Structure formats: C-alpha cells, structure tokens
Amino acid sequence: MKALLLSIACALTLGAIAQPNAKPVGGTGPMISVDKELIDYGTITQSADGNRSFVVTNTGDQPLVISNCQGSCGCTVPKCDSAPIPPGKTSVVNVHYDTERVGPFTKTVTVTSNAANTPNLTVNIKGTVEAKEGAATPAKARP
Fold this sequence. Notes:
Shape: elongated
Strand order of the largest sheet: 1-3-6-5
Number of helices: 1
Oligomer: single chain
Radius of gyration: 24 Å
C-alpha cells in the first residue's frame, strides 16, 4: 500500500515538474466580462429614448483591446471605445436601438476583442416598442 501511494506521489510530482511553462488554470492575458448579458428595454413608446449601455471589465492581467462592436442589424448601433482597457479597469459600450420600429424585438451586440476567454462576446437586447397614441400601427400578418 505504501509503495502504491509513493508511486502516485512521484507521478504527480514529475507531472508538475515536466510542465513548468504551463498556464495556470483560468489562463492569463486579457479577459472580458460584462455587467449584464441582457439589456431589456421592456415596453417603450415609439420614438422613446433608445439609448442603453453596458460595462465591459478587463478581468485579466494584460490590456484588453476591443477591435469591433457590431449590432445584429442596422436598427441596433453600438459604440465602443477603441482605447486599450488596462487590467481591472472598465469601459462603457453605448447601444442605440431605433425606437421608430414598432413591435417586439430581439437583437444582439457582438463585442470582438483580444480576450483569451471570449474573443466574440454577445450581449442580447430585447423589448417591445408600442405605437404612439394616434399613430398608425402596422398591419398584422395574415394566417
């Protein structure tokens, strides 16, 4: 029994020595996280303020660089800062949804960066735009 335990201990020690340059669990480099993965506009009135934002944090140990912010359609326009985000610091991503479009919506914003954990991070956006009182509403689809 002692010989078995000694063999296991030696194998674990040799395994640790054989990989001196292995990255620690969790990795290193820039890491991205957001304060919310869903922006819920709720129910808003046509022409209401379509601006919202979310916060990106660099939880890694190297600068995080956002290379692109892309909405899933022309009605969803994000704006990202291109300056590198130092470790532990944050940046705000502003999102504008076109609230002239009446009806429910589900869209996405994709943040592309040099993050080691999620180089293409997606934030979901949803809500419903109701027509202004007295405004014409779009015709319902026929079955």
